[in-house]
Specification:
Elements (H helix, E strand, L loop, with lengths): L1 H68 L5 H12 L8 E9 L8 H5 L6 E4 L1 H4 L47 E11 L8 E11 L6
Antiparallel strand pairs: 1-2, 1-3, 3-4
Helix pairs in contact: 1-2
């Protein structure tokens, strides 16, 4: 009798453990995907936030350089160098477009037309290809790409057209130094694809051009 009862208890114990294991597997099947989504979500949005900070830092640094450079012939070249340095952690090849534009005031935004093409008297538009252009040639002479030469990439809104005076007026703009804006756009690629394939990150900064002390 004892032996039979012992076998009975063991059978019930084995069945109970098998039932617990089955329950645990079912629970794991429900919980594991949610846990993985949470982990991947933290990772994905961590990278997204890091890249957004890179874009924001780029507009801040580039707009400051554009402001300080004022109407210098090399202003946009120096602005691109500053943007390239700020964007180095991500790689400037991931930058979609950078626009240097004439803003009407601190609350202005980048003109929609400048996102597609540079506009005479209003903005210069740059893509990663322009970041590799030189200011001077191999002999140290001015190259054709900047300083508002006939085929220069900064010829649409020439730096020497930018108002840095304290009382002069640009046509259609307020008295005093002009406002200059820098818009940056970049494409962030998600790793897992759970939240889509890409996200467009943008930032837009406007600052007054530093007045010409001369």
């Amino acid at each position: 009798m004892k032996s039979d009862n012992g076998h009975s208890w063991r059978r019930r114990g084995n069945q109970s453990r098998r039932g617990e294991r089955g329950t645990a597997l079912v629970e794991a099947a429900f919980v594991t995907p949610l846990f993985l989504i949470l982990i991947f979500g933290i990772m994905e949005f961590g990278f997204l936030f890091r890249n957004y900070l890179t874009v924001a830092n780029t507009t801040r640094e580039a707009s400051r350089t554009a402001s300080v450079s004022g109407s210098s012939a090399e202003a946009d070249y120096l602005t691109l160098r500053s943007a390239e340095h700020a964007f180095a952690a991500w790689g400037v090849e991931n930058l979609t477009v950078l626009v240097v534009y004439h803003a009407t005031g601190p609350e202005d935004t980048v003109p929609a037309s400048c996102l597609a093409n540079p506009q005479p008297g209003l903005c210069n538009r740059y893509t990663p290809n322009e970041f590799s252009l030189n200011l001077n040639d191999a002999s140290g002479n001015p190259d054709i790409y900047f300083r508002c030469k006939p085929t220069a990439v900064d010829r649409f809104w020439c730096p020497d057209q930018r108002n840095t005076g304290l009382s002069d007026t640009d046509a259609g703009f307020p008295d005093g130094p002009a406002y200059i804006g820098v818009y940056v756009e970049a494409e962030h690629e998600y790793i897992t694809g759970f939240f889509g394939s890409t996200a467009t990150l943008t930032d837009d900064r406007i600052i007054r051009i530093e007045p010409d002390k001369g």
